[in-house]
Design goal:
The structure holds two protein chains of two kinds. By secondary structure, chain A is mainly alpha-helical. Chain A has one domain: ABC transporter involved in vitamin B12 uptake, BtuC (Orthogonal Bundle). Chain A contains eleven helices and two strands. The longest helix of chain A is centred in the first third of the chain and has 29 residues. The radius of gyration of chain A is 18 Å and the shape is globular. By secondary structure, chain B is an alpha/beta fold. Chain B has ten helices and ten strands. In chain B, the strands form two sheets. Chain B has a six-stranded mixed β-sheet with strand order 6-7-8-3-9-10, with helices on both faces. In chain B, α3 packs parallel to α6. Chain B is globular. The relative contact order of chain B is 0.19. The mean pLDDT of chain B is 90. The interface between A and B is medium-sized, with 17 and 24 residues.
């Protein structure tokens, strides 16, 4: 019988990563009503860049910084070059399909550049033990970043502009908000949070598909939380992480994916807008 | 203050605004009247940059603003209160108000905020509430107050009386006149609009069919019957 505390701590660490990647999804969904399937691929490119820098310098932090900057650049480029040209067409599905395509392309490119072989990727700190410094670092970082993002949206002029541009782009423009710029900022913000999640999720081994399962659980967390709701998604990520950790430890690791599906089906049949989502959908 | 020349705006092959010339003088209300579908809303949306014109010019305060994006037009001093007010229901009353002048220096924002609450006292007690909880009249006050947060040189209003009780409409229109702002007022409620306006234009099928002093328009029975329906 595994130690319950160890399972809970492991679950929190995984859950933190689901929460961060889920938060990235929610930021973009709120701003542009697009589920960004390319999110894990953007994060993957950033993690690989961190890997390259890590190997060249031998340190951890410069790699993390490079990953975050790369995330910002990739987020801005994706919005400006791929998503924005589709916005005027008024087709809701087109941008989603484009992000799916981008996912496949970027994963393949990563494989071509860094090979499909798993590369060893460092932890920030010592990873041994139930309350290892590495685990604590992951959880604390995600909680702090999530708090900062919520504060940015809820309590700053920029956050007010971002929300207004997301809710009513036409009206926001009439009020002096540069709506296009706000959408780009939303994508940048999301891609930076995603890059962080990628770097935190990658250890011990980085490979082109390492973030696939993480993304599935992040998406589950976001849907459980209500795709519109950042707080719900963050909570959803942690709850899902701990729940899956218990399933894995007590019932067997082969049941984890099944359990995630069961949670998803259960939540969606009881509360179709997610545990914390509002029941009113806005059609744009 | 605001001069529109030969403005043409089309949705597809059908022009909604078809060669409109219009002049809104400084410090008074200019009314734009007409039935549903006459092109009034499209005219305002073109002036404020929400739609691009096919032809023509919009000159505001001595500067050609044709084709500017809406955020630039409002920063230049022309605020547009859209049909139904455009209050963002998911935000609080205070957040809606703040949005109106976010780019201005903090001190100016505070001064305008005080002025708006003096002008519309009902808003003062409802600042922390969701805008969705406001009544129709309060929403319209919020929409106009929010536009005033930018301390505009001119105000473009799209049917502020829509769906409101006549007394509320009268109060809002009177406030508008007392502000002595340059205002372009689009209305179906012709009698109310002309009561506060100095000059009026009548639009039909995207063209100006009459332009005269407000009093003259009110007195012209034939025109009223033909285009304004009262």
């Amino acid at each position: 019988m595994p130690d319950l505390l160890t399972l809970a701590m492991g679950g929190l660490t995984n859950g933190a990563v689901y929460a961060a990647l889920g938060l990235a999804l929610v930021i973009i969904f709120r701003a542009t009503r697009v589920v960004n399937f390319a999110q894990p691929a953007l994060a993957l490119v950033c993690a690989y860049l961190a890997f390259t820098v890590n190997r060249a310098t031998g340190g951890y932090w410069l790699g993390l910084l490079v990953a975050l900057v790369a995330g910002a650049v990739l987020g801005a480029l994706t919005e400006r070059l791929l998503i924005r040209p589709l916005r005027s067409r008024g087709n809701e599905l087109a941008p989603v399909i484009v992000t799916l395509g981008l996912l496949l392309v970027l994963q393949a490119v990563c494989g071509m550049i860094w090979s499909a072989e798993p590369r060893s990727f460092p932890y920030a700190f010592d990873f041994r033990g139930a309350f290892s410094p590495a685990s604590v670092f992951v959880v604390v970082t995600v909680v702090v970043v999530a708090g900062a993002v919520l504060l940015l949206f809820g309590a700053t002029p920029l956050g007010l502009r971002l929300r207004a541009a997301a809710l009513r782009p036409d009206v926001a423009g009439l009020l002096g908000v540069r709506v296009g710029l706000m959408l780009t900022i939303g994508w940048v913000l999301a891609a930076v949070v995603g890059a962080l999640a990628g770097v935190l999720a990658a250890p011990p081994f980085l490979s082109p598909t390492v973030l696939d399962t993480v993304f599935v659980y992040a998406l589950t967390a976001a849907v459980i939380g209500g795709l519109d709701n950042p707080v719900g998604t963050i909570l959803g990520g942690f709850v899902l992480g701990v729940a899956l950790s218990f399933v894995s430890g007590l019932l067997g690791p082969e049941l984890v994916t099944l359990a995630a599906l069961a949670v998803l089906v259960l939540v969606l049949s009881l509360r179709p807008h997610g545990l914390f989502g509002s029941s009113v959908a806005r059609r744009v | 203050m605001l001069t529109v020349t030969g403005l043409v705006t089309a949705y597809g092959p059908v022009p909604a605004v078809d060669g409109v010339d219009l002049d809104a003088a400084g410090g008074v209300v200019t009314a734009v009247l007409g039935a549903n579908g006459a092109g009034k809303t499209t005219l305002l949306r073109t002036i404020s940059g929400l739609v691009a014109p096919e032809a023509g010019r919009v000159v505001f305060d001595g500067e050609d603003i044709t084709g500017w994006p809406p955020d630039r037009v409002v920063r230049r001093g022309l605020a547009h209160v859209p049909e139904h007010g455009g209050v963002i229901a998911e935000l609080t009353v205070a957040e809606n108000l703040r949005l109106g002048g976010l780019w201005r220096p903090k001190a100016d924002q505070r001064r305008s905020h005080g002025e708006v609450l003096d002008l519309f006292p009902p808003l003062a007690g409802r600042l922390p509430r969701q805008a969705s909880t406001l009544s129709g009249g309060e929403r319209q006050m919020l929409a106009i107050g929010r536009a005033l947060m930018s301390e505009p040189k001119a105000l473009a209003l799209d049917e502020p009386s829509l769906g409101l009780a006549p007394t509320v409409t009268a109060a809002i229109l009177t406030t508008l006149r007392e502000l002595r702002l340059t205002a372009l007022l689009v209305e179906q409620n012709a009698r109310g609009a002309l009561a506060v306006a100095a000059h009026g234009y009548v639009l039909a099928q995207g063209r100006v069919v009459a332009s005269a002093d407000a009093d003259t328009l009110l007195a012209d029975d034939q025109l009223r019957h033909a285009y304004l329906g009262f």
